[in-house]
Design goal:
transport, transmembrane, Cytochrome Bc1 Complex, Chain C, 570 residues, globular, single chain, cell membrane, transmembrane helix, 3 domains, mainly alpha
Amino acid sequence: MSQNTFTRVEDSPTGKKLAGPVGWLDDRLGLAAAGKKNLRKVFPEHWSFMLGEIALWSFVVLLLTGVFLTLWFDPSMAEVEYTGSYAPLYGIDMSAAYASTLDISFDIRGGLLMRQIHHWAALLFVAAMIVHMLRVFFTGAYRKPREINWMIGVGLLALGMVEGFAGYSLPDDLLSGTGLRFVDGLIRSIPLVGSYLEFFIFGGEFPGEIIIPRLYMAHILLIPAILLGLIGAHMLLLVYHKHTQWPGAGRTNENVVGYPMLPVYMAKAGGFFFIVFGFLALMGALIQINPVWAYGPYNPSEVTAGSQPDWYMGLSEGLVRLMPPLETTWFNRTWTWSVFLPGVGGLGVLFTSLALWPFIERWITGDTREHHLLERPRNAPVRTALGAAGITAYVVGLIAGGNDIIALKFGLDIFAITWVLRFGLFIFPVIAFIVTKRICISLQRKDNETLTHGWETGVIDRSPDGGYAERHAPLPDTAAYALTGSRERLPELEAETVHKSDAYGVRNPDYRKQSFRQKMRKFYYDGSVDKPTSHDMDHASEHLAGGGEHPVVLGDDFQGVSETGVPRVH
């Protein structure tokens, strides 16, 4: 006879000892009720959802390594004589910030490893945020009720780039000083207030003596605090709105199919943190980045040959390099448009457009419903094409930021590269838009063909008159739902004709706005293919059922055959 040896936690010796303190906290904080609800929160699973986790865990690594670096870094621009172990710079006058960076790299145990992990984590943090936002954009995950969370994400991206640049500038080496000189030019180019802002930020004429301490305070205190607050708000809204999910079996706009946060999701997320941390540690140990000792201390009279910023700032530099020289003189003042328009205006337009896009799209489509199912990129051809055009323009700007390096390494004419990219900045995105839109429309038609004609089986039938035809198998209901679950019916655009005046001849005061909106709606839905109607599906089912005289056993996991006739395995 077996004896039950199970003991409840509250009846165990440890549980009895903790019952008092835990009960005291619960009476005052209500942790039990909140924990019971939130720790069992269900989250869906998909590989693309890990992109946001990569950004989150990269930020955690930044905090951990940043604490270590803070203990040894001296954020001072006071001039000192270097007496460290790096012989080529021994006895050279430099700022205390640069000297302490060399000490961290050569004299502090593990310092160089921490520096490199920190720098790689910063690059991965920004990259993961960008790719995560692209996933959200292309799948329509920013739609109601997640517009505020999207704007928070845009703010996180902007602050992450500023935070990365601030940390990049702290060593006060010749390369980071060149980057600061570039930013000084951007600030100066702002009409009317540029020179005043420069004196306020730098404490006088560039480079001044206080910019490194100010960047240090912003880098370790101000911006991280704001980032933490925004990340917290981002996560809270994620839990409150529930996570979006891909359409599939059992998944609707009203539920979430997945695993609970505790213990499944927390275990997976914890394990993923160690994967990200290990990957960054491996990169920091094996791949050199930002060797400040090779650049030397910053000198305002010198510029690093072939200097390049971190990749996420390459767009702004590339746009400045592409802009033709344009200056005007008004009221005895020089207005440098060739720096202000691409450098300050370009980034301003980019982030403003990103932040307002959910509201712009909702105004165009008139869709005010809540959306919790993700939309396949092919089912929004214009949105997907706009995203592809934006990525193309970004790549052109990024290439332009390294036009001198490209010309040197490949033996090309730098002026030819610059002129090709100047025209390409306007031509290549248009080409990308057209090609991407046509691909999306073609994929929509392919989905419709799959829904109405079924999967190709690779089984060939011969008719009595000698003809050959391939047998098709109907899609299971789950596969059909995955193709149509989040696919919206196209609106009846012709029924919304805008008139200048009503039947009584009274002029419509909103005619221009309504007409413009109607044109934008037609542009947004132009070429999109509507999903099959119920009549189309019934007719397709009858047609597919007619080939059942000689049934073929295909298996439950059959999903059609490839172009070579081999069954697809997903």
